[in-house]
Design brief:
heterodimer; A: 417 residues; alpha/beta; Aconitase, domain 3; 3 domains; five-stranded parallel sheet; four-stranded parallel sheet; B: 133 residues; Glucose Oxidase, domain 1; eight-stranded mixed sheet; 2 helices; globular
Chain lengths: 417, 133
């Protein structure tokens, strides 16, 4: 492997701390095992490894911190297992709660910005087009590559923090231009203009992309211009949960796809698939597993709800209280914004439970008796059963609001025409 | 017979094969407490991976699997070796981290289309040669 003098000197321990050396070893070992012949300098990192999966991860990160490892690039933190502002909100047993908190503190100590959010790109972390970064958390990776045009592979536990400490990542995969070109075209031009403009369509399209494309880079052709960050957030999160999607191009919408030909690198697509309304409807239906009409809760904010989404929910609710708890998962950046204009109080009065720093699908916050959970997030719908035991019902945000007010599923068929 | 694999992490191992007949993600797929396959519907559901030489033709790439791999060392439930179907860093990262913690580790090698079946007894040498009893 070809290493710079600086990289060699950290790796040998001639300069830097023992923690720096451990991190550089992990990065170079990964590069070697992946077949990368050099490292690439990175400009930011988003750390997924702060979510507790067992004591060993906390012990390792504490060791890194004790050995003097400090991040060398701006590094935001993904969700942890605790709402640090309200630690009693989750039902983790005492020992696990303590270790989950120690893991989060170790990241703090290494100099990470304590953002505790899975939507760092809505909390100010927005790398530039073409910038090399090392991000973790599948939706954030997909958003960084797709919407911002930054370059990252899917970095996970330990390698993410090691990249941030080394300011390096193995040079392979989506860090390289040639691997970012689309090979598969997904045509949506045959769908109705009404349908493809709906917020909920972005989530369902994302789920379809995950199933159809997996790791193959694809370009979606036929989408309208002017998609919002929240719509693209829903698409990326869905695609990255139903498949190992880290980059999607949307012709005319995303930065590396000013048009179809550019996204394909002016080559012929290996395959073109036409998305039909039937495919959309069956993907939508597969996201709902509950057969009963009664719902026990509504969960929103995967990825974390934005201020705009909070405002949209208040508009839709029109002051009518909820019959079942509505959990909104959000980051501190959004909490601060809604506190500044009183929207937080308005939400709580309706019956909203605000879940900060974490989310209801990664830590036990939902009622312990499994029930039916309605959501507008394809990602929540995908992971709910396995992680929480609750059966999902998938719907639009307005269906979620109306259903929370009724205590049972209320549908609006006009969206799907 | 012997086969030559590519060494990702060097080491010796001797033991019984457990082959995954369907792709698996360690995160959500393996219990770090019991080492059993917990993925509903997986052909090896209920089987413990501790002390086995794992043949993993295909992984599902949840990057939190590194954390589960590390936790298996911590709970003394680690397999004896990993034979991967293709190059991958997710599980090996967990092994390198275990080494940095000073815990005993295991070899990781790559052998596409490894012919070993569950219950086969095999031997992996430091240079990646695999012998079947």
């Amino acid at each position: 492997m070809i290493l710079t003098e600086h990289e060699k000197s950290i790796l040998s321990g001639a300069s830097g701390t023992v923690g720096d050396q451990m991190a550089m070893e992990l990065v170079t070992e990964s590069a070697r095992m992946l077949g990368a012949d050099r490292l690439v300098e990175i400009h930011s990192s988003h750390i997924d490894g702060c979510l507790y999966h067992g004591d060993s991860g906390a012990l390792y990160c504490e060791k890194l911190a004790e050995q003097g490892a400090r991040v060398k690039v701006p590094a935001t933190t993904n969700v942890g297992a605790l709402n640090l502002l309200k630690p009693d909100q989750c039902r983790l047993p005492a020992h696990q709660r303590k270790m989950a908190s120690r893991l989060m503190i170790a990241h703090d100590k290494m100099g990470c910005a304590p953002s505790w959010t899975c939507a760092p790109y809505q909390a100010g972390a927005r790398p530039d087009l073409g910038q090399q970064v090392a991000w973790g958390e599948s939706n954030a990776v997909a958003f960084a590559n797709t919407v911002l045009g930054a370059r990252t592979n899917r970095y996970g536990d330990f390698l993410d923090i090691a990249c941030a400490i080394s300011a390096r990542a193995p040079l392979y995969g989506l860090h390289r231009s040639e691997n970012r070109l689309a090979r598969l075209v997904l045509e949506v031009g045959n769908l109705s203009p009404n349908l493809i403009r709906q917020d909920v369509f972005y989530a369902v399209l994302g789920a379809l992309i995950g199933q159809l494309a997996g790791e193959t880079v694809c370009v979606v052709n036929g989408m309208p211009k002017g998609a919002t960050d929240d719509q693209l957030k829903a698409l990326c999160a869905a695609a990255a949960s139903t498949g190992a999607v880290a980059l999607v191009h949307i012709a005319g919408v995303t930065p590396e796809a000013p048009d179809l030909e550019t996204a394909l690198g002016h080559r012929t697509a290996e395959k073109t698939m036409h998305i039909t309304r039937d495919m959309v409807i069956s993907t939508r239906d597969a996201l709902s597993l509950a057969e009963d009409d009664q719902i026990d809760s509504v969960a929103l904010g995967s990825p974390h709800f934005s201020e705009a989404e909070c405002r949209q929910l208040l508009r839709l609710a029109k002051g009518v209280n909820f019959k079942v708890p509505v959990y909104i998962c959000l980051g501190r950046h959004t909490l601060a914004a809604i506190e500044s204009n009183g929207a937080d109080k308005a939400l709580v009065e309706l019956g909203v439970v605000l879940v900060v720093d974490t989310c209801v699908v990664v830590t036990p916050i939902l009622p312990s008796t499994p029930g039916v959970m309605m959501t507008n997030s394809a990602k929540f719908a995908h992971y709910a059963t396995g992680n929480t035991g609750h059966l999902p019902v998938f719907g639009t945000l307005s269906e979620c609001v109306a259903s929370a007010q009724a205590g049972r599923v209320i549908r609006d068929q006009t969206v799907w025409s | 017979m012997t086969w030559q694999s590519e060494v990702l992490i060097e080491g010796e191992a001797h033991g019984e094969v457990l082959r995954f007949d369907a792709p698996i993600s360690f995160w959500g797929g393996i219990s770090p407490v019991t080492s059993q396959v917990i993925l509903a519907g997986h052909p090896q559901q209920g089987t413990a991976i501790a002390d086995k030489i794992l043949v993993i033709p295909q992984m599902i790439g949840s990057s939190s699997s590194s954390a589960v791999m590390l936790e298996l060392f911590y709970t003394n439930m680690a397999p004896r070796a990993l034979i991967l179907g293709s190059r991958d860093a997710i599980l090996p990262v967990g092994v390198v981290v275990a080494r940095q913690m000073g815990w005993p580790i295991i070899p990781v090698v790559v052998l596409p289309e490894a012919p070993f079946l569950s219950a086969d007894k095999i031997y992996i040498t430091r240079n990646g040669q695999i012998e079947k009893d």
